[in-house]
């Protein structure tokens, strides 16, 4: 379990492990990559990038305009408030989006319409 509170440095990158990681960022901007394993990634009120990597991941963007990438596996993604972007690519599995509000975007990369 990794918890970072009041981390204000812009552009921080955090990489998980091949195990089941729990990563929580309560304040600060970051790109967080979960790696392999069934990860849970939670961020605070800033604009963050959450990439679950391989595994069945849970991504919680909270407030802010976040980018959520489930990666391989069947993932659960919740952007929270803000204008979030959900990214899907071929081989990402069957993902679930739970969205509260905002003008959100679903972005498909290398996916044919028949595969949706």
Structure description:
The chain has a six-stranded parallel β-sheet, with no helix packed on it. The chain has a six-stranded parallel β-sheet with strand order 2-4-6-8-10-12, with no helix packed on it. The mean pLDDT is 87. The chain contains no helices and twelve strands. The protein is mostly beta strands and 116 residues long. It has one domain (2-115).
Instruction: Provide the spatial order of strands within the biggest beta sheet.
Output: 1-3-5-7-9-11
String of helices and strands:
EEEEEEEEEEEE
Unreliable runs: none
Number of domains: 1
Helix content: under 10%
Distance between the termini: 34 Å
Round the Cα radius of gyration to an integer and report it.
13 Å
| Beta-strand content estimate | 35-45%
Average the pLDDT over all residues and give the rounded result: 87
Q: What best-fitting shape do the alpha-carbon axes yield?
A: globular
Number of alpha- plus pi-helical segments: 0
InterPro entries: Hemolysin-typ_Ca-bd_CS, Hemolysn_Ca-bd, RTX_toxin/Mannuronan_C5-epim, Serralysin-like_metalloprot_C
Organism: Snodgrassella alvi SCGC AB-598-J21
GO cellular component, one term: extracellular region
Main location: secreted
How is the topology of this model organized?
Blueprint: E1 2-4, E2 12-15, E3 22-25, E4 30-33, E5 40-42, E6 49-51, E7 58-60, E8 67-69, E9 76-78, E10 85-89, E11 96-97, E12 105-109
Structural key phrases:
12 strands; mainly beta; 116 residues; globular; 6-stranded parallel beta sheet
């Amino acid at each position: 379990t990794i918890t970072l509170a009041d981390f204000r440095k812009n552009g921080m990158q955090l990489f998980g492990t091949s195990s089941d990681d729990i990563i929580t960022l309560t304040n600060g901007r970051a790109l967080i990559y979960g790696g392999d394993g069934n990860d849970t990634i939670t961020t605070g009120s800033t604009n963050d990038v959450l990439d679950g990597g391989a595994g069945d991941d849970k991504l919680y963007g909270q407030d802010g305009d976040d980018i959520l990438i489930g990666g391989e596996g069947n993932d659960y993604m919740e952007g929270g408030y803000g204008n979030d972007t959900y990214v899907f690519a071929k081989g990402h599995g069957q993902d679930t989006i739970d969205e509260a509000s905002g003008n959100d975007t679903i972005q498909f990369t290398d996916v044919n319409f028949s595969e949706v």
